[in-house]
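[PROTEIN RECORD]
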Amino acid sequence: MTHNPPVTGATSPRIALTRHRTAAVAATVALAAALVTVLPAAGAVAAPRAAHDAAHQPAPPRISASARAGAAPLRLSTAQHAELLDEAADTSADTAHALRLGSGEKLLPKDVVKDADGTVHTRYERTYHGLPVIGGDLVVHQQGATRTTTEPTGRISLPTSVASVPAALARKSALASVEEERDHEAKATAAPRLVVWAGGEGKPRLAWQSVVTGVQDDGTPSNVQVLTDAATGEELQHAEQINAGTGQSQYSGRVQIGTVRAGDHYELTDPQRGAHSTYDLTGVGGNGTLVTDADDQWGDGTTANRQTAAVDAAYGQRKTWDFYHDMYGRNGIADNGAGSYSRVHYGSNYANAFWDDGCFCMTYGDGLDNAHPLTELDIAAHEMTHGVTAATAGLIYEGESGGLNEATSDIMATAVEFYANNPSDTPDYTLGELADVRGTGRPLRYMDQPSKDADPVKGTSQDYWTPQTKDLNVHNSSGVANHFFYLLSEGSGKKTINGVSYDSPTYDGKPVAGLGLHNATNVWYRALTRYMTSTTDYAAARVATLQAAADLFGRSSDAYEAVGNAWAAVNVGPRFVNHIAVVPPSTRNSAMGVPVSRQIEAVTSRSGSLTYSAANLPTGLSVNRTTGLITGTPTTAGTFATVVTIRTSAAETLPVPWQWTVLASGGDHFVNPDRYDIGAWATTESPITVTGRQGNASAAVKVSVDMYKGWIGGQIIWLVAPDGTAFLVKDFVWDTGSELHATYTVDASTVAANGTWKLRVQDNTPSFPGNAAVPGYLDDWSLDF
């Protein structure tokens, strides 16, 4: 099951950002605190659409009775929606100024939604001196005079907007890169366009964006987007936008579908759902042939009748449209009343289905044996939800944002299946459960334990987040969010639902209580449409869903904590205990004489602030009562059984114990064991204060370094003496390894020994197509005199 987004103007950035987890977790705590300034009050819920067939009279968008009514989506007419967009466009310069963007930056409103309490959420794309900024999108939330922002990125500043690398060279490089990893000929369909790449770990850069099309090995169309640094020619990003999955047709029994009379025949076009039409692709080009029938009786439930797959596709779009409308007041996939279209019988022996933003359509193959069309209800809902994601958060289909994109389709497809409650397709927490494309008789996705999906080609889906999640195929990394959603819906442990047995584990082995499918779906949809952006990763998704829960149920609710605990159960962020969630403190060693600054990161679901106290800190250290920052300089070596106690304003407490070791540092041996992050093409310095020495340093000072960094040979290391003299420790070498554990000898006999020495690490990773600097860190270093 796949997704193919388009390459359009500034409103469709498609390049992924993945963040280092340490920074992301810290951002989770900080942004969670920032976003909760917008809390909707009570208000009305949206009304149903006026035009609907008589056989289906929908209720207003549903929200749990325990939820905050003010967070319900307000149904906007086309004119009201356009008016809000116009207002956003008219005030975009003021908004950019308020966000402290640069003078060359402009905001372009992409979409706007409004809650019943009047809170307006405006989604913006960004340009820089007229160039699209890829990865620069953000959402502004306005309630009266209160304004907050989701996913703000820093001010864009480039030394030039003129490319040094010609467009033709960027195009050639992109073609070569794609052809190198595909066994088919690739071709670029359009000239590269100049953009600003703001989705990476380092500073924004001028880049060429190329689109290379072709066909993947299994017959799926290929649409690879390649970003090339416009100054150096280095490849910055390479992302396939259509990634193959598998599935099987699921016949839903006798169903009602939308059709229209056209002269002496009927056409498979749904007049009440945006005129969605279904086409048969066999033997024809383009979109194929519109499916028609003489008596308005379609298909016979077997693949021998070509209409059967078309019936399932039409039924799938009908139920998906109704679900989004009845639950959230959404008027179609793009919320503009326009219908998509479906194409069945794609290719030959094609065991796949995919959504394409470019054509705003779904396409279904007939399976490996041409007898099992992939038109099952949850597969159809999965594909159309890619369109909803494209129209809202625009999650880039690569890295962690790609996993979230794919998971969103699985999550909402599951909700559609429960909403339809078709007796021929019992609702469950698996996808494609009757498929046997792999010859195993097993489902394609398991929400309760994603690792049960082990594909020999794509690998095993993840149950829990790891630092490697960002590097996985999006169908595997999606398992983290799928597992979160199941736990949030049903909780952990053994249970039977609709006759299906589940036994969902948790990362920390602790139980999780569920909110129910309805509430869990409301949380995810609100997070997707209000708070996620194109570059949202798992840490940011946790923030988005917590804010959605605060909107719907209140920050002090059990539901809010249930969201946090479901994320903790998949190894994303901390668990709430006694209404406090704390990121586990670092257990890294410290050293005598080396200053310490260690932050305790915690939040509470209760009103009021937290306070901190500590017992048995290393000698010389203390904790700030109001901020939780531990500072000082250790004076005694040893291992300390430290306990920091966190207290809410309601006197609820959470003790956090850990073993804190202080290494001896003095005499002939001085060490700094603290971690120092190394950014891409950045310079980092780590200090050691030397005391108790006499005269100058020796001619054979030993400098030991432990460092982790992609392209380790590209790091130039200097030892900087207290008087500023810099001694070269390690020069650039052609070493593509990722770890450095070495001891070097430096003649420092010309400078005094006492004072603060620094190890300076300069990232000088070579820049060429296919190679990019990535973040790393200095793990520790020491001096021996």
About this structure: The two ends are 61 Å apart (CA to CA). Residues 41-150 form a domain with the Nuclear Transport Factor 2; Chain: A, fold (CATH 3.10.450). Residues 63 and 522 are 7 Å apart (CA to CA). Residues 5-65, 243-251 have pLDDT under 50 and may be disordered.
